[in-house]
Amino acid sequence: MKRFDANSTAEQVIEGISLEGKLAVVTGASSGLGIETCRVLASAGATVLMVARDEEKLEAVAAELQRQQPDAQFLTQRMDLADLDSVHSAATEILLYHSEIQLLINNAGVMACPLQRTKQDFEMQFGTNHLGHFLFTGLLSEALLEGAPGRVINLSSAGHKFARFNFDDPSYHHRDYDKWQAYGESKTANVLFTVGLDRRTRERGVRSFAVHPGAIMTNLGRHMDAADLATLNERSPSSKGLEFKTVEQGAATTVWAASSPQLSGRGGIYLEDCQIAAAAVEGKSTGVESYAVNPAAADRLWLLSEELVGQSFDY
Ligand SMILES: NC(=O)c1ccc[n+]([C@@H]2O[C@H](COP(=O)([O-])OP(=O)(O)OC[C@H]3O[C@@H](n4cnc5c(N)ncnc54)[C@H](OP(=O)(O)O)[C@@H]3O)[C@@H](O)[C@H]2O)c1
């Protein structure tokens, strides 16, 4: 089998793989890695349901992808992950038309924003990156199980190394806000969710993967200033500082997670550079921290998330 690495592009990863007959739902489809992910999944024959919060932007991106690939199938759905009512409405509309889903790519995200709160008063990064996706996935779970075999891909980040998940105060009601810590906590939550979801659905053919896509210049950096970039560079163990990927390379691990036969029979794991990540080692920017794949913490987060979204998901 072909081996891919940090330089591989999403197009290279999908080469020779057909996704005909599969429905792929992709959040954060209006920008950056989401657009490239949609483009490449559709080029392999998947019907791609593009989900984003800004309808005008979403329709413009979908129209451009359709122009580039006239025979591909792109659908759109508006959803604001920072409003659980919007997540409920979007899932209801999707389920009206689709009883089976094979791929769910939970790609949308915000990074290092100033302290903001979602409509239901959760800290914005926790609420958007984790809780909104937790609810969205739960609401679509019946269609995912119906469409099995399938995969759920949760975009995490090497930023999960910034912080363990804080079970005592996930929304910063009782501690000083730190935008990077909050991002780290939300990205740790993405990995823990992957572990918890995979445990619950693997017997029924739905496997879950967490992905670190690399460092890519996208709109994700909209809240960053020069000082933030300098800090991230300093924190990078590489003597060259942060090494950036192109968007085409940045979408590769997501597309690999969604389609590679090399991952058959696997799940509940963290991927980077189109490989299964090793355990983290002190001083290295790669690898997954043990606290992010801890099954007890994954179950604890599952229960907390159910409580916060007001719904249980017992598959
Ligand atoms: N780029 C990197 O270096 C990097 C590194 C590690 C991990 N990641 C992860 O990769 C994923 C994609 O990031 P990206 O680099 O492509 O960033 P991006 O260009 O900023 O795209 C993020 C997407 O998420 C959407 N989004 C944000 N808040 C939302 C909300 N409340 N409801 C619905 N959608 C919302 C954005 O919508 P709008 O277009 O309306 O803003 C956009 O479509 C994220 O989960 C990120 O954490 C990226």
Report on the architecture of this protein.
- The chain has a single domain (10-309), classed as 3-Layer(aba) Sandwich (Rossmann fold).
- The longest helix is centred in the middle third of the chain and has 23 residues, at 124-146.
- The model has no long low-confidence stretch (mean pLDDT 96).
- The chain has an eight-stranded mixed β-sheet, sandwiched between helices. A two-stranded parallel sheet has the order 7-8.
- It is an alpha/beta fold.
- The protein is built from ten helices and ten strands.
- α4 (84-97) runs parallel beside α5, α5 (124-146) packs parallel to α6 (179-201) and α5 packs across α10 (295-309).
- NADP nicotinamide-adenine-dinucleotide phosphate is lined by residues 28, 30-34, 52-54, 57, 79-82, 107-111, 128, 155, 157, 212-213, 215-216, 218-220.
